[in-house]
Amino acid sequence: MVQSYLIKPDLEGVYPKVDYGKGVFLFDVDGNKYLDASSGAITANIGHGVEEIIEAMYNQAKKVSFVYRSQFTSEPAERLANKLSELTKGDLNWSFFVNSGSEATETAMKIAIQYWQERGVHTKTKVLSRWVSYHGITLGSLSMSGHPGRRERFVSLLEEFPVINPPYCYRCPYGLAPDTCGLQCAQELDSVIQRIGSKHIAAFIAEPVIGAAGGAITPPKNYYKEIKEICEKHDILFIADEVMTGCGRTGAMLACEHWGVLPDIVTLGKGMGAGYTAIAATLVSNQVMEPIIKGSKSIMSGHTLSANPQACAVSLAVLEYLEKNNILNKVEEKSSYLREKLEELQNQYPFIGDIRGKGLLLGMEFVQDSHSKMPFSRNLQVTQMIIKIAQRNGLILYPAGAGLDGINGDAVLIAPPLNITFQELDLLVNLLSKAFREFEEKINKTNGEET
Fold it and tell me: So what's the pLDDT on residue 180?
């Protein structure tokens, strides 16, 4: 075997080598076929090998692939910014293009702090967030992330921005039911702001649906309205991290639309380039831009490849493809169909504790006992076990955290490309059921050996 010097997630792991992708399927060099039930990392929103996107790549590459943003603008960048302004509600009219979700959330943090500086308020430097959350891997974005596993090695370098519990109804931190809780998980933000002092807080950031950190945790009905009101009451900006949920993943351009809330700043990524290019964005409202335009006239952030015409042309083609094919209009119907099928599996397999999510961003949490909601032992590594079994059976799933501590729990995300067909959804469920049967046999055997 030839020595590989590629740094992979598991340095001792053995990974199949991908050959090509078409639609919702991936094929490795050995001819094995996989249904991409997680859109890679909840990214390939329109599937693989779409000819229109490939053509857009080629056409732009023939012109110019790179210019530096302080020297030139470009037609693709200008058109993409205008398209995002058209597709989003409210006055989120300004786009700052970057290369990844981590860069987008870090840029959002910097813009929020600069907004207050431009208004002459220099004490507002904190960006509060929730536990069981993930906003990126750079030091700034990781500081905002309430993901203990990813924070652990770098705690001494990080700010302590996560301060409140997530809206985790399946494992309510207060032991209450959604219809009787009085939205304590939202009210906690009000209490924390009063303790810290709003004069120190620039913004609050949250994922509308908590992704990999919590397995598609979805809040109760009026949660985000309460959060937005608390932010406005204390003169704090609200940042919606829509890197995973944006660009149609939940059936709307922005997931916040489902709850009738308009953020001050939004981050996009993943589905914005749909895996065809590396691109992300920080969208900024007119209100937040106004003092910057009147003041320094420059946002203190930027990257070498920000707004490069090649990536912008591809992203524009992705968004136009979504529009032309009315893909967002069909997400809710597909979501209901898939969720119903997953609930049938839940009745069949007692280790499926909860099914949650929005649109085609669904999560399944696995438990040892569905009545007590007792998680499996961490030693069993249930999430990884299920993912490996599924992949051997030709199904790609995405790992997610679970449990109130974000560590002691197991979950996966099921988030196929938005243009998956109903026939392909049936195949997804059949492959998933096959994987669950194998997992059940394996876990029963393990329990039998232990007793």
Answer: 87
The amino acid that residue 352 corresponds to is I
Is the torsion defined by CA of 347, 348, 352, 357 positive or negative? negative
DSSP string, 20-53: EEEBTEEEETT--EEEETTHHHHT-TT-B--HHH
Q: Which residue is listed with tokens 């998680």? A: 375
Within 10 angstroms of residue 83's Cβ, the number of other Cβ atoms is 17
pLDDT surpassing 50 at residue 155: yes
pLDDT at 212: 95
- What are the start-end ranges of the E strands in 187-326? 201-206, 237-241, 265-268, 280-284
In whole angstroms, give the CA distance from residue 65 to residue 451: 62
From the list 268, 269, 245, 261, the residue with the least C-alpha distance to 362 is 245
Residues 311 and 106: their CA atoms lie apart, in Å, by 20
Rounded CA gap, 389 and 434, in Å? 9
Residue 319: strand, helix, or coil: helix
| pLDDT at residue 126, rounded to an integer | 98
Phi and psi at residue 28, to the nearest 5°: -95, 175
- What strand order describes the sheet that includes 280-284? 94-98, 280-284, 265-268, 237-241, 201-206, 126-130, 162-164
- pLDDT tens string 248-287: 999 999 999 999 999 999 999 999 999 999 999 999 999 9
Per DSSP, 378 falls in state G
